[in-house]
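input
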Amino acid sequence: MKSKKILLVLAFIFILLILMLIKKANNKINVDVNESDDIMSIKAIINDTVVDIKLEDSNLANEFINLLPMELTMNELNGNEKYTYLNTTFTVKPTNPKHINKGDVMIYGNNCLVIFYKSFDTSYTYTKLGHIDNLPNLDKDEINIKFEL
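output
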């Protein structure tokens, strides 16, 4: 009789543990993934305009998410991009995309975050982090940007 009670208590504890692990896993998925289309995305506020950044399914995107929330000032370069160097070194796989599209979010080298606000052809190599579909006008000299989950 006593052993049955012990088994029931152990079974109850085991079920509670499993339920807690499932809840923890579901919470992580809800934070990192946009549930409507299973595309990983984060929110950015660029000079008071809210945009969604659709992230690549990559280790780089996961490394970037682990830095959030983060607020930065990005500087102008070449009349087509904003950039800033981060205090983090990312795992990158640079390639030459040959063409940059307005809204592309890339890493140059292994720590330079770049947001392109004009489309153009390129001979440089980048690792793609994501894309912003509804990118606002970024012609100002510098922008303030806040990244959030």
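quick obs: The chain has a mean pLDDT of 86.
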